[in-house]
């Protein structure tokens, strides 16, 4: 078989030697011709300056040369012809000798480069070349498919896997068990699928494409696979094989679910205060007599609900800026003690409505802090607001602000429903509302704690949480004094 890469140096040397030999032939032949022209100018027809011979007036005629001159010219012509043939012949002999040396130095290359004269040899060579090209294409295709992020597989007529890439092996293989030779029906997680009968029916119909979503377990958050199957048809139209595509869409499904929950929560958060404002406004506009104290109470409720709506819309706008990466700080010297007292007064109405016992200890030696007053006020509102929302009627909420070295510590403690241990790592995630049944009954957007952590981090601080179910929650916020 022709091995071109390994024989390229020999081929290059062979061609170089033959080129040199050809140049030697040309140079020797040209030199012979030039030498002949120089030695025998008369015979070759070269221009020479011949002096006229003296001629006797009486014995020789002007139109006929003497006999001795003709004999000399004939001799010169004979010798020049012999010399003209001798030099090229010598050059050819030397070149032939050179060619034989180069052939012996690189045996087999000339035979391999020369086309075979046998038609069967031609056919075998073409077949080997086609096989080599096919193998190269197949290897290149396998490299491409192995780099593909989605799982790809091909199955034969019986449904057994004939090819699978690395992504599919990572998605479906258990304990590094090879997939080739098994069926996709055995590899896919069908046991946890709610509508297994419909899935089985779709699998049995091998003539049409199918697209399915399969759960790995009964809990959809542990994995959802999108499976697509496409029949590969021959010229006759019959399906002889199938191409499969498998993709993990768990994160996409969770994101869609959180967005859906967020929209629903926003609608509920807007609906409740709007209904309250509308009902109290109708009461004020009624024709019945309302005393001054009732009017003041109704106006207080309307103001509180309007403030709640304003803060909610502000949170949405802040979250939008945070998502776009446009959240920035407007730092100013702030009296942090006065800021905390202002926030407490704004939520005191909510604590009164739920009859929550509130305790606050505020260090009076806290220096002025260089921070964004508006955003930090929102963070304190979120922490205290969550404590009030998730604490049942008649519960207890505590706020302690302390100064330790060069750090301000803010402790918000409640006696509410608490947070399950599995939800603690995700409590600061955007749109996260928790899977606890009691937590689901409390309205909220799921963006308050995420926004709070982002703002505190931008100030160089950090927020942590400690909680147990039915034992309350303790949020700790640390801010540097700068």
Characterize the structure shown.
This protein is of the alpha+beta class and 482 residues long. It has helices at residues 4-39, 41-44, 67-105, 109-113, 119-146, 166-172, 184-187, 196-204, 250-285, 292-323, 336-353, 373-389, 437-440, 448-458, and strands spanning 151-155, 161-164, 210-215, 224-233, 239-248, 332-334, 357-362, 369-371, 396-404, 407-414, 462-467, 473-480. It folds into 3 domains: 4-44 and 66-113, no CATH class; 148-248, Beta-Lactamase (2-Layer Sandwich); 304-480, Heat Shock Protein 90 (2-Layer Sandwich). 52% of the residues lie in helices and 16% in strands. The strands form 3 sheets. The chain has a 5-stranded antiparallel sheet with strand order 2-1-5-4-3, with helices on both faces. Strands 7-9-10-12-11 form a 5-stranded mixed sheet, with helices on one face. Strands 6-8 form a two-stranded antiparallel ribbon.
């Amino acid at each position: 078989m022709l091995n071109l890469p390994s024989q390229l140096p020999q081929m290059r040397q062979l061609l170089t030697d033959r080129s040199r030999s050809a140049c030697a032939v040309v140079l020797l032949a040209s030199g012979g011709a030039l030498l002949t022209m120089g030695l025998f100018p008369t015979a070759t027809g070269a221009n020479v300056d011949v002096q006229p011979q003296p001629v006797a007036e009486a014995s020789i005629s002007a139109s006929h040369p003497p006999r001795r001159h003709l004999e000399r010219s004939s001799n010169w012509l004979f010798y020049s012809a012999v010399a003209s043939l001798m030099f090229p012949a010598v050059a050819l002999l030397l070149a032939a000798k050179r060619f034989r040396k180069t052939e012996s130095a690189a045996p087999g290359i000339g035979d391999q480069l020369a086309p075979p004269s046998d038609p069967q040899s031609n056919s075998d060579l073409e077949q080997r070349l086609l096989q080599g090209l096919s193998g190269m294409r197949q290897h290149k295709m396998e490299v491409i498919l192995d780099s593909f992020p989605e799982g790809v597989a091909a199955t034969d007529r019986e449904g057994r896997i004939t090819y699978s890439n690395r992504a599919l092996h990572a998605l479906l293989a258990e304990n590094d068990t090879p997939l080739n030779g098994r069926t996709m029906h055995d590899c896919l997680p069908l046991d946890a699928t709610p509508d297994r009968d419909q899935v089985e029916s779709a699998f049995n119909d091998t003539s049409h494409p199918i697209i399915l979503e399969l759960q790995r377990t009964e809990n959809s958050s542990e994995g959802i696979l999108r499976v697509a199957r496409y029949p590969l048809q021959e010229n006759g139209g019959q399906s002889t094989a199938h191409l499969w595509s498998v993709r993990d869409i768990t994160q996409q499904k969770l994101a869609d679910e959180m967005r859906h929950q967020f929209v629903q929560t926003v609608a509920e958060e807007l609906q409740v205060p709007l209904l309250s404002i509308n009902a109290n406004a109708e009461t004020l506009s009624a024709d019945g007599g309302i005393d001054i104290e009732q009017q003041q109470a109704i106006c207080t409720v309307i103001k509180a609900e309007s403030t709640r709506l304003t803060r909610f819309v502000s949170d949405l706008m802040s979250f939008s800026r945070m998502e776009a990466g446009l959240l920035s700080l407007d730092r100013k010297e702030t009296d942090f003690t006065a800021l905390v007292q202002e926030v407490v007064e704004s939520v005191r109405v909510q604590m009164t409505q739920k009859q929550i016992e509130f305790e606050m200890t505020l260090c009076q030696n806290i220096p002025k802090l260089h921070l964004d007053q508006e955003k930090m006020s929102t963070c304190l509102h979120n922490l205290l607001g969550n404590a009030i929302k998730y604490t049942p009627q008649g519960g207890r909420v505590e706020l302690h602000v302390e100064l330790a070295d060069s750090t301000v510590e803010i402790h918000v403690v409640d006696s509410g429903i608490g947070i399950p241990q599995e939800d603690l790592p995700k409590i600061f995630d955007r749109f996260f509302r928790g899977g606890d049944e009691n937590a689901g009954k409390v309205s909220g957007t799921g963006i308050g704690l995420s926004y709070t952590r982002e703002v505190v981090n931008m100030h160089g601080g950090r927020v942590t949480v400690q909680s147990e179910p039915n034992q309350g929650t303790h949020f700790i916020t640390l801010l540097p004094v700068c």
